[in-house]
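tool_call predict_complex ligand=pyridoxal-5'-phosphate
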Amino acid sequence: MKIYDDRLLDFAHRHAVEFLSALPERHVGARATRDELLGALSLPLSEGGEEPQAVLEALASQAERGAVGSAGPRYFGFVIGGSLPVTVGADWMTTTWDQNPGIFVTSPLSSVAEEVASRWILELLHLPKEGSVGFVTGCQMANYTCLAAARNAVLRKAGWNVEEDGLPGAPRVNVVVSAEAHVTIHTSLRMLGFGTRSMIEVPTDEQGRMIASELARVVENLSGPTIICAQAGNVNSGAFDPLRRIAEIARDREAWLHIDGAFGLWAAASADRRHLVDGAELADSWATDAHKWLNVPYDCGLAITRHPASHRAAMSVKAEYIEHTAGAERDPFEYTPEFSRRARGIPVYAALRTLGRRGVEQLVDRCCAHARRFAELLSGQPGVEVLNDVVLNQVLVRFGGDDATTREVITRVQRDGTCWLGGTTWHGIAAMRISVSNWATTEEDVTRSAAAILRLS
Ligand SMILES: *Cc1c(COP(=O)(O)O)cnc(C)c1O
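tool_result ok
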C-alpha cells in the first residue's frame, strides 16, 4: 500500500519552488488583513473533512498576501535571518522522517547529527570544547535553559538542592542584569521564579553596553549566590558588553556569568569581529540562535553551558520507561526543556557542513558590510541621522529629527514593499531599525532599499 499520494507532495514541492522564486521580487511585507485571511480560511470544522490537496491549495493561495517575505533578501525587520537552501532541504527531509530526537533510541540519526553539530558550534564560536549544547526553539528557551542550570548550580554551591527541594526556603539568589537586557532574559527569569523586581539592573552607556565599573560597584555590595547576565549584541544597536571585564568581575565574585548572544555571539566566527566577543569564552553559559544568523529555518536556538552536569541536572529526569543510554550515546532531551520535539539539529548540521568555517565567516562579514553600507548611504542625507556605531549588522536611523517623522517614514517604507524594516525606541527616541542577517541579501538589495527609504523620507 502506498501511504502518501505523490501528487500531494508534488503540489507542495511546486508551491515551495514558486514561492521561493517569487520571493526576491514580491512585496516584502504581508498585505492581507486579519479579516481577509479569516474570510479565506475560517470555516466551520467540517464533519467529513476535505481532500488534502484542496487544503494545501487553500493555504498556498494565501501565502503571497498573508505570509511575510522574511526569508527574502530585503527583509530587515527585527533580527530574523533567512534560510540557506540546503537547510530548507534538510528541514523537508527532517519533516519527512518525522523523527523524535528525545532519546538516542527514538532517533539515532538525530542524536548523532546533534552531537556532531554541537562540536562544530563550540569550535566555531570558540567556546570550551567540553561544553554542552541543547537544541531548543529559540533564544528565549536558550536563555531559560541556561539560567535554569545557573540557578540550580549557584544554589547547589550554597548548599541547596533545587532539583529535589524546589525553591521554597532557598537562599536568595542575586540576579544582576543589564539595563538593556533583552526582554526574554526577563521572561526567562520570571519563569524560573525570580520576579522582575528582584533583578538588579546595571546601567548602560550611549551604545547600550553594560558599564563594567557600575557592575563592579553593584556586586561589591552583594553576598550569596549570584548570577550575572551580560549581552553580546544589543538587539537595537548590535553593541557588545565589555565581556572580558565582566567575566573578571564575575570570577572574583564567584558568580555564574550568562551571555545572551542571540545573534552577536556569531561575531566569534569572524576573524575581523572576534575582538567584539573577547572574553565571552570565560562565561558559564551562552544562549544563541541558529534561526537568526546561521540561517536555518525556524525554529532553532542553542543553549550552551560550560557545565554539562549542571545543564543535565536542571533539564532531565530519570523515568522507568526511558531507555537511557548507558554508553557514549547522546540523549538529547537531557539538555532541553522539551521532551519530544523537532529534530532541529539536522538543518544545523547541514548548514555548518555546507558553509564550513569560511562560509560562516563570510556570511557574518557580508551582513556586517551591508549594514555599514546602509549607514553610509543613509547618513549625510538631509534630515537623516544614524544613531549607533555600526559595529555589527544593526543600524538605527532617525528622520527629520523627531519621533513622528521617523515613525511616518517607517510606515511608508513598510507600505511601499521594496523592503521591510521596523521601528524601535532607542534611549527614549523613535528610530528605524535595520538588521541585515540573511545570506541572500546582495549589495544591490542594499542600494535599492536605501534608495527606497530616502525616496520615502
Ligand atoms: C532575538 C533575541 C532573543 C530571543 O530569541 P528568540 O529566538 O526569538 O527566542 C533574545 N536575545 C536577543 C539579544 C535577541 O536578539
